[in-house]
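PT: before anyone asks, these are the final sequences, not the draft ones from last week. 849 residues across everything. Please model them as a single complex and drop the result in this thread when it's through.
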Amino acid sequence: MADRRRINGPPGATIPPIYEDASDKSVVTRQPPRSRPANAIRQTYLKTGVTPSASGSAYLEVEMAGKPGVSGLKLSCTVHGPRSLPRSSLFSPHIILSTHVKFAPFATKQRRGYLRDPTERDLGSHLEAALRGAIIADRWPKSGVDIIVSIIEGDQDRETSRQQGDEAWDMMNTLSGCITVASAALADAGIDCVDTVAGGVAALVRDDADNGKPKIVIDPVPSEHDKIEAACCVAYLPTRDEITNLWFKGDMPDDDMATYMELVQQGIQASKHANRVLVQCIGETVG
Amino acid sequence: MASVTIPGQLLGPTSKYQPGPGTHIHQTNLYSSLLGVVHVSQPVKAPGPAKRLNKITPAPAPAELPTISVSRSGVSEKREVLPEVGNVVLCRVVRISPRQAVVAILICGDTVLDAEWQGVIRVQDVRATEKDRVKIYESFRPGDIVRAEVISLGDQANYYLSTAKNELGVIMATSEAGNTMYPVSWKEYRDPETGVSEARKVAKPF
Amino acid sequence: MATTQQVLLSPAELAYLHASLSLTPPIRPDGRAPNLFRPLVAETGILPGTNGSARICFADGTEAIVGVKAEVEKTRGADATEGGEDAEEDNNREGRSEWVELTVEIPGLRDDDSGTAFLSAMLQEALLADGGFARKLWINRRYHWKLYLDILLISPPLSYPLPLLSLTTHLALLATRLPRLKSEGDEDPFFDDDWAAAPYLYPRDKKSSKALARPPVTLLVMAVGRNIIFDPAKEELAVADVALAVSVGEAAETDDDKGKGKGRKLRLLSIRTIDPPSRLTPPGVPNASNAAYGAAGATQKQPEARMAEAEVVEGVWRAPRGGAKPLVMAALVQKALERGGVADEVLDALDGVDLG
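LR: through. Structure below.
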């Protein structure tokens, strides 16, 4: 799909700057390693009701790492609806959920276009799966709700992409933020949910400082670790003890189920931490 | 008893309460499904056996339990309501055809709707008697405000509405001359200035 | 999205399906065992114009073609490091995920449909999970192969096409050969034009011509009640409590793995939850609230006095709510990774395909 509404330059004609390695390796300031404990998430700010014209809205911010050039995560979510479906659609006994995740053009190191690219669509599908398990869809027959998450600032390090050649680990953090912020916005909009769903990420990392022994941390920041072996993003319903969305990727060292179980368990822990922020935030809006 | 709940919060066992709006059942317990304030309402005593039973019905459930519900009032003014079967709605006639009148639903119960929902009053649902003689253009005109009851969720686009009751029908109408008219009979509105009568399915004034 | 397609089953049919799939052992509509795949017809090397190709046709009529094309591309940012120390050896080769481009085409769906994007992201993610695949595309420090994988579903998507697409991609990659490199070092690459001499992307044993390593496969697993069902058909997916796509690859055997039972040693590469279409199925109406059976008539209700929650009635279908217990998900993954289990059988079956 080409962007027909704007005049764009030829695609792929430019590349973001690549910084040369400092010739003297000893001068290179090594990134500060993770300072918080392995079982703590970064500080999170969440507020609902930020967009008056929407049925429900929320804003989420995750603190930046201490290092300059590393941005935190800033997400804004609006919920529109429930409203009537377009005339062309079929009868539905349930609410039709449509999720849109969009990076602002300036949110990441490489500038993004205005049209949604495959990564954004993929994130949207993940978000839809996570939320669809949480809402009680049969309360709203014949109606639709649009959930729009704008990523104002992506959780990214200027250096990371070059080191790992992959944005995928950032995507997991972004998705977990999207799930939490959308859940807050849904509660603000008054759409029936079985529980407050929140996202959490856990990763199996390998640090040179630990002699390359793999360990599991929650809410990983890729730039704080030497290598991420595997990671999982979990959308979890705390009171029901259920997972609505699980996204795992990476290279497990062996066919050992215990590592996988531990990783998911830690993901659930991260989600519980995020859920505490969520509950406190939406509880404050009343009263 | 008014306390704030968030979705997923335990409200009590199903053996103690009946589920009301804003709640859901999960494994014999009632949970909140909305961010809102909890209300418990005691059941109204049924006013004795009203009618002689004339058909076999399953034994009615013992509806003696208090109903627990979660409402959004006090949290937010914004709360969408969907028209439901059995609701009385106020709507404006958008266009008419020989078979049906297309209306836009404005108010559902006491709630002004935010979103626009479309409804249809079919020719056979206009009144309860002499259904075969009903003519839509003698019952509704575009711009009329109509009180109607929802009889079905309908198809993908329209709710199906009915005015086949005395208290349902046109409650506000404008004449061809552009004046607001007053009802004179169950099927007539009159213009106070020109004195011309126009045919409508008139709602019985309360 | 492909999973959210309208399922044309009535609530009664859904309830019946769900009940029969929850029995021990489950009774599937087509009589398969829970871990049995549908029969399929596979062939490779059908397109001479590609570097590798494959076609698979499932017994239910769904059919997919995959073509792999490779192009030489200049590595971005390579000039900056050029002329550095030449001593760096092969273990310094690093692949990048952008060297692989994978597209999925499903008839009847727009190419910007999020379901298609989800499928292609899932297949790509499994392929690149261990970083070893992108490393195969390294030519020298200035050039690399860019691999285009075009996955075409030719039939309408009669069931969730993920297993079919994954198996076809697997075969096409096994059959892929890249021209033999004749140049040396970091000079501009040129290749041997003898196709017969072209090495396979996944190297093979000289004698048995069996592949030594293999690309990953993605399995679709679902759970109904306490049963785990592999390769569900569309109707079965419509009553799933939870559905997972699990990508597994072959792991290298180490010495202490010997004697751990037969079958391959598998490793987990990726998991994604598939949104089961069961959440969008119409609910049944229990007799207690059915007006035709003398339930209290729906007389003038106040708005808000609706949504009377009904308790779950045995035999009346209701779309599942919420997610799945972590232990159920773990059981699904465990079953997929089992030594000598379904993934093993699938890989064995794919071994039997003549790679031409």
